[in-house]
Amino acid sequence: MLHFLYKKVTKTPSCDICKKNNSSFTQKINNKSEKNIGKTIIVFIFAAENITQHFFTMNPFSTELLNKITSIIVKKFIRSGGIDPDDYDDMTQTLRAKYLAKKEHIESLYKGEAQPQTYMSSVLRMMMLEVLRQSQKSKVDTVDIEKATITEFDRSPSPEQKAIIENEKGHFQRVMATMGKDRAKIMMCLKKINRLRVTDEDFAEYLDGRPDNGARQYLNDDSDIEAANKDIYARLCQITNLVEGSQNKPDAIRIWLGNKTDQIIKRMNSGNRSKYDNDSLAILLELMYS
Questions:
Q1: Within 13 Å, how many C-alpha atoms sit on residue 162's CB side?
Q2: DSSP state of 218
Q3: pTM for this entry
């Protein structure tokens, strides 16, 4: 029995610190006999505590995670038509370099409130939008929402930035109030397709007293950030079909949301106040709800 446990817990780890702990544990356990199993267990507990403590203090933002999410973000923008497929390598390198330039500051802001990949994805997506805006050299809108974008991912925006964001947030909410009975459904769908968290309040407002019929399980999924838009629309379709008792296809929810988004943008831009498009609306949502 002791031999079986020893074989299971002494698999050689890849981490240098854990190798050291594992080596120490192996040496100690080899010096024990089965009649000293009590002492052996104590040795194992101390080794396990050392390794566990190390894992809890490790930086969760590995190079592998950065490479993976950078690739996912760029491919997502290629699928949406925002980037030419031939620019994949250049955009990937640009995005990685932009992140690495601010790596220490970005990662110091992580408080553990979201999964590391979700946090990193949010940062990289904002950076990707900034790279595209700079490459296109176009203003986002006439009220300078671009000035409010936290391009260096600084969690302490200036008073000017805060004022602009609050002004645009109020403008967006007033427009959403004109969307009638569809408002809650639109908000849920916009958050989902932009990989923003749908809150319990958002979902409750959409349900409006109806049973969810199991739809909640499709609401927030860590895999959303890696999913193609067609997969997100499929999940939205599952949610709405279960709640509404309908049998729509994902394409139907895509077309419906596209039409509603066009209405929102048209109303946001009324009176020549702004020049929103799908990308700048996504930026505003990111600033408001990320």
A1: 6
A2: G
A3: 0.54
